[in-house]
């Protein structure tokens, strides 16, 4: 019923969407992650599906419910997400990258559980633990570099300051058509919240701020913008 009530302005389009937080394992029980709920991605996936698109979501382990009509591949690590998305690089018209991807992963400790008496002591701190991290590939930047004619890319940015600057620079750096940014330290916005306040800008320099809207509504408006592009 909802689909019948929605404009079918994405009919015939394939959307590839990343969502949620990646999990980077360290030892047998611990991993490195972030508080992304995957809600913004799930709202966008659902909105795109209702508007007629074929939707494929590649998400971290935790993300809200999605209808069966949406293809859903779950991964754990940034590297797994990178590989799955790269496999699909030629198979979508619109790429929406909402995932909170770990920029770095801890070098694995191994299959055992780390015991606290193994922590490395330093003269300054007798109970310090040092863990090394390695950089992960940037999924959106890689897809941006090989963007095909007719493909549209939407990036996201969660920032603690300088939002407009970050949105403009990430838009260019990742060769996106639209970049949507939000501040993580605002009330009623960002991680875990059902609402969000965003600043977005497209590749033609047009920008807009939207304040304290439900993520469902924001998803609809972001797709309106994409349809116009
Ligand atoms: N992104 C990605 N792969 C990564 C890191 C980020 O696909 N390894 C995507 C995110 O899904 C988002 C955009 O790139 O759409 C911006 O992510 P963000 O973390 O804000 O930017 P970074 O380039 O990682 O820069 P920084 O975290 O230092 O601000
Ligand atoms: Ca990052």
UniProtKB/TrEMBL annotation:
Protein name from the UniProt record: Coenzyme A biosynthesis bifunctional protein CoaBC
Pathway named in the protein's UniProt entry: Cofactor biosynthesis; coenzyme A biosynthesis; CoA from (R)-pantothenate: step 3/5; Cofactor biosynthesis; coenzyme A biosynthesis; CoA from (R)-pantothenate: step 2/5
GO MF entry, a single one: phosphopantothenoylcysteine decarboxylase activity
Function: Catalyzes two sequential steps in the biosynthesis of coenzyme A. In the first step cysteine is conjugated to 4'-phosphopantothenate to form 4-phosphopantothenoylcysteine. In the second step the latter compound is decarboxylated to form 4'-phosphopantotheine. Catalyzes two steps in the biosynthesis of coenzyme A. In the first step cysteine is conjugated to 4'-phosphopantothenate to form 4-phosphopantothenoylcysteine, in the latter compound is decarboxylated to form 4'-phosphopantotheine.
GO cellular component: phosphopantothenoylcysteine decarboxylase complex
Similarity remark: In the N-terminal section; belongs to the HFCD (homo-oligomeric flavin containing Cys decarboxylase) superfamily. In the C-terminal section; belongs to the PPC synthetase family.
Binding site for CTP: 103, 113, 137-140, 156, 170, 174
EC number in record: 4.1.1.36, 6.3.2.5
Record's keyword terms, sorted: Decarboxylase, Flavoprotein, FMN, Ligase, Lyase, Magnesium, Metal-binding, Multifunctional enzyme
Catalytic reaction list: (R)-4'-phosphopantothenate + L-cysteine + CTP = N-[(R)-4-phosphopantothenoyl]-L-cysteine + CMP + diphosphate + H(+); N-[(R)-4-phosphopantothenoyl]-L-cysteine + H(+) = (R)-4'-phosphopantetheine + CO2
Gene: coaBC
Domain DNA/pantothenate metabolism flavoprotein C-terminal residues, every copy: 10-227
Cofactor(s), by name: Mg(2+); FMN
Bound cofactor: record note: Binds 1 FMN per subunit.
Region Phosphopantothenate--cysteine ligase: start-end pairs: 15-229
Biological process, per Gene Ontology: coenzyme A biosynthetic process; pantothenate catabolic process
């Amino acid at each position: 019923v909802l689909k019948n009530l929605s404009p079918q302005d994405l009919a015939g389009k394939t959307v590839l969407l990343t969502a949620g937080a990646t999990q980077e394992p360290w030892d047998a029980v611990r991993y490195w992650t972030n508080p992304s709920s995957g809600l913004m991605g799930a709202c966008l996936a659902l909105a795109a599906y209702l508007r007629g698109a074929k939707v494929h979501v590649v998400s971290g382990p935790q993300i809200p419910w999605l209808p069966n009509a949406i293809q859903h591949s779950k991964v754990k690590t940034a590297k797994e997400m990178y590989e799955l998305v790269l496999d699909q690089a030629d198979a979508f018209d619109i790429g929406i990258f909402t995932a909170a991807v770990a920029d770095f992963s801890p070098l694995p400790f191994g299959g055992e559980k780390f015991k606290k008496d193994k922590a490395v002591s330093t003269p300054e701190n007798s109970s310090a633990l040092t863990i090394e991290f390695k950089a992960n590939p940037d999924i959106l930047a890689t897809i941006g570099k090989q963007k095909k004619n007719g493909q549209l890319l939407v990036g996201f940015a969660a920032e603690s300051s300088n939002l407009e600057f970050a949105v403009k620079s990430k838009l260019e750096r990742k060769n996106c058509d639209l970049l949507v940014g939000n501040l993580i330290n605002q009330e009623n916005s960002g991680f875990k919240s059902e609402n969000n306040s965003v600043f977005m800008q497209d590749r033609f320099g047009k920008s807009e701020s939207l304040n304290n809207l439900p993520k469902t509504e924001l998803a609809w408006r972001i797709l309106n913008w994409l349809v116009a592009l």
